[in-house]
Amino acid sequence: MASGMSGEIISAENLTKTFKGVVALDKLNFKMAAGNLTAMIGPDGAGKTTFMRLVTGLMTPTDGKLEVFGKNIRGNEQEIQSLISYMPQKFGLYEDLTVAENMDLYADLHGVKKNLRRERFTHLLEMTGLTKFTARLAGKLSGGMKQKLGLACTLVRSPKLLLLDEPTVGVDPLSRRELWEIIKTLIAEENLSVLVNTAYMDEAELCQNVYVINHGRILKSGSPAEIKAVAQGLCFKIKTPPNIPTRILQSILLDDTANVVDSVPEGNFVRFIGTENFDAKNFHLPAENIPARLEDGMMILLHKDNPSISATNLQKLSLDKKYIASSDIDIEVKDLVRKFGDFTAVDKTSFQVHRGEVFGLLGPNGAGKTTTFRMLCGLLPMTDGFLSVAGVNLRTARTQARANIGYVAQLWQFDCCGEFEFFRWRLRFKRRAFAKSNCGGARRI
């Protein structure tokens, strides 16, 4: 019996994909029941996106079997794609088009009839909170609003299977929660089947089934509780001694590769995962056993799949050294202001960052974090206030200040090519249609 007839919407057996000799998927086995919300988790390069693109028919398997809706993906790409909506990591929004124009464009590409759009669009705009912004250019939206618009464009028609490739990366926690409320509402209203690749464990915990993948192989599958159980009894927390910064204790724990899988700071504590060799009774700092989380189970599985070849003895590491923060100020911000016309993006912000300190700016999309960073890097002039980096005044010596700065920017690269590749199979009659892309020029589809 075909897998779709038995309730399996996706079925992969020994699925293999190679790129010029590099194995991206290695005899992967995967099953997803219709109506389920399923997550795939794992490190970057594990094969999550490759698997999702095979399911959409954008790639062809090198070997093995892949069925979607009970049909072999080979030779049935168009039929399967007509039942799928796919939101890739770099969704192709057109920043010089409005919210409404972007939705109309994707409705055209999906072949949604004009008389069916009004009700569908109204519902999607209400769910995403974009009703008041239909005339705003996509390029003027915050990061979270762009992601919600991307989801709305993906869902301009009601699919049988929704594929989401890390849909909430780069958005603030509030926007992430709002996106997931939208997804859960659509699942309830339209009986959607959803496969999501995610880097967030709280999102994976919302799913019925979780697949942990690494090096193109499934390490374990099951409910979130079953993945957590892998780390049960191996999770601990230690209160940071008064003379040691939390990050120092975290680093010391991470150096003990023989006994510690992972460690993260949490307030005045360091939370860590021990291996089966770790014995809390023999440890010279009080280590309290705590409940396992989904992330802990995944980290244990990844550790077993990548056994460390180096080891140190944590008991021999000295914790007696006095760690004193530097009094030198590397970044100083006083009453910083940045305005764009009548809009104030940064309003009299002040802070200091000492040498050797790890300092974070936390806030929702649109709060002014990136604007502050761009002023700190000398890429954007301040409206008012004072900025100095490494003792150099940004107002009078921006070029000199930039020589002391390394900057990893937030790259909103809305590359539409992957999305149009998905439509190419279904729009062969539009041979002369062109799609303008931010990555340069136009692409014929």
Can I get a quick summary?
This protein has 445 residues and is of the alpha+beta class. 28% of the residues lie in helices and 27% in strands.
Q: Indicate the mean pLDDT.
A: 82
Major sheet: size, sense and barrel closure?
A: 6 strands, mixed
Question: Could you tell me the number of beta strands?
Answer: 20
Bulk shape? globular
Low-confidence stretches: 1-6, 309-318, 412-445
* Structural class computed from helices and strand pairing: alpha+beta
Order of the strands making up the biggest sheet? 6-7-8-3-9-10
- The proportion of residues in beta strands is 25-35%
Alpha carbon gyration radius: 25 Å
List key phrases describing it.
alpha+beta; 445 residues; 13 helices
Walk me through this protein's architecture:
This protein is α+β, with helices and mostly antiparallel strands and 445 residues long. 28% of the residues lie in helices and 27% in strands. The strands form five sheets. Strands 6-7-8-3-9-10 form a six-stranded mixed sheet, with helices on both faces. A four-stranded antiparallel sheet has the order 2-1-4-5, covered by helices on one side. A hairpin with a 5-residue loop joins strand 19 and strand 20. Helix 3 (99-110) packs parallel to helix 5 (143-154) and helix 4 packs antiparallel against helix 5. It starts with 7 loop residues before the first strand and ends with a strand. The model is unreliable at 1-6, 309-318 and 412-445 (pLDDT under 50).
